Every structure is written in structure tokens, then in C-alpha cells.
Amino acid sequence: MVSVEELIGNLLLRHNCVIVPTFGGFVAKRVPAVIDPDKGIMHPPGKALLFNRQLINNDGLLTAEFASQNSIDYTTAAGIINQLVDSWNDQLKTGARVAIDRVGFLYFDQEKNVCFEQDRFFNLLLESYGLGKVHFMPVEDAPVTLIEEDKLSKSVPKIIEHPALKARSNAWKYVAAACFLPIAFYSYWIPAKTNVLQSGMISAKDFNPFHKTTPGKYKAEKLDSEIQNLNLEDLKPNIKVSEKGTFEFDAGLKFPIELPEEMVTPQATIRPENELPCQLIVGCFGSDSNVENMLAQLHAQGIEGYVYDVSNGLKRVSAGGSSSNDELRNRQNELNTKGIKGWIFSTK
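Given the sequence above, the corresponding C-alpha cells read:
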């Protein structure tokens, strides 16, 4: 079973405030690295902890974590924590210290105030995990081990250069040049000597400066004698004009043609039988898909719409007809409230 003391230390690694219900809260604050030049010690960054006796309201963090880690319900976990708090209070009243692993210990001072002292041997900052104190020595106190006295002058010391400094190489300059030259060359070659910008496609041949693109050569094939001797007059009875504006042969060969407007049959359903003089028009469309969308929108509102007529290639969609304008105004107002704008078209 994971103890409450262990969970407090774990939670302070991930949070800056952990409250023990009815007892108090531990508040963490990040502190930077500290250098002590007198002792020659550098402390890594960490967290400074404070204990606030006024933070007693249960925020649920510690209780929920204790219940999850020990696979018990929340109420049972809260009861265990309350028993632990009573035990801590009893220890403090007797003058004993309450030690919390990796956090510190609590005690009463002479005025019966709760005091807290942080554990200085454990770093609660995850970014500094594993870092310890770094000891250093001032330059003036360092022993001279790499100094050789000048043979001509005993009073002038000479610093011997470390052998590793002599091993510096300029190889990185050649590596950088070897990487930069191809990039610079192809940044000019590909846009200027290939059609990448026009076609939007690039191939491996575009990276070969010695590759030459030759124009394609096409050879005319002789037509089959049966096709060459085909009489177009014989094909006329077999040619059919479809509603989509294509010629269709018996063999299944189709090719598009441009038909006069009077020969084109509209795709949408047209009701020429409805000859009421007043129509509530809700749109004129040249595309069948737009017509179908408008009819579907009317159908969703409970209105049976239809294509009233076709004028100049545009199909007028009606939301209903009537013999007078007054009968259509109520429907027009109703559609306006639903976001469908329309107008009354009258042939009177």
C-alpha cells in the first residue's frame, strides 16, 4: 500500500501545491541555481517548499491520488487521510517531529506554531533530477600544472597549450562546402532548365544535368480498310441524339456535340401543366444540382416545390401557385422567416 507521505513527495514533483485536508498545504516555488563562491559550490535549480497552515480545504488532489494508487474508493481514502492527520496532531502535541519522506519534517515551536523544515538532500524539480552539487575551485587557488617556465627567463611563466587544441581540424568547412554547392546548383538548375514550375511535377531525370529531353515522334497509322471505306450516309439511321447532348452509335461510341437550346430536355422535373397565373418563385438556376438542392430545402419545410418554367437557360423554381397575389403573400412571409427568399411572379 502506498503511504500518504510517499504520495505527497510524488505529487510535489508534478505540482506546485499539495493540500493535506484539515491539516495544511505544501506550496512549492522554483528557485534558480545558486553559486557559493566562498565554499566553491554550485547548487542546481530546485524547488523551495513552504508550509501554509491555512490551506485546509480539500482540493481532492491527494485524496484522489491515494484512492487511485491503492485501488480503493474515494470515501475510504478520505477516512484514512483523516486518521493520519489526527495521528500527526497527536505527535506534534507531544513535542515529536512529523517526518515526510523527501519533503521535510514538521514540529511545534515554543509558541505552539507549526514550523516546517525542508529536506535539503532531495531535489523536487524534475528538470534537475539526478543533478547534485558541483564543486569548483577559484583560478587563483588552482595549482599550476600546465605552466612551464621559460628557459631564458625564470620569472616569466609560459602556459603550455593543451594537446587537444592542436588537433583542431578544418574538415567541417569542406563538409559544409560539399553540402552547400549541390544545393546552390540545383536551386538554379531545376527552375531554369526544367519544366517543374509549369507542370508541378518533378522526376529523377530533372536532377541529371546531362539528360536531354527530346521531343516525341509520332507515326501515323493506316486506318483499317473497312473504316476507310465507311460511308457516312449509312451511319445516319444508326445515330441517336441523347438528352445529354451526345451522338451515340450502335457500337457504343459517343462523342459530345452542341445542340440548340430548343432540343435540350431539362434534367429537372418541369410541370408545364400548372398554369396558375401567380407563382411564388424562390430561385432561378442554370445547374440541375442547384435546382435539386432548392427542391430538397423546400421539401424539408413541408412544401412541394417544382420547376415552373425555363427561360434563357435558367430554371425557375416555384414554391406554389395561386390565382391571386394575396394568397401567396402569407407563404412568402413564412418562407422569409425560414431564410428562403422569394418573389411573386404574375402573368396577369
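The chain has a mean pLDDT of 75. Try to locate this feature in the C-alpha cell string yourself.
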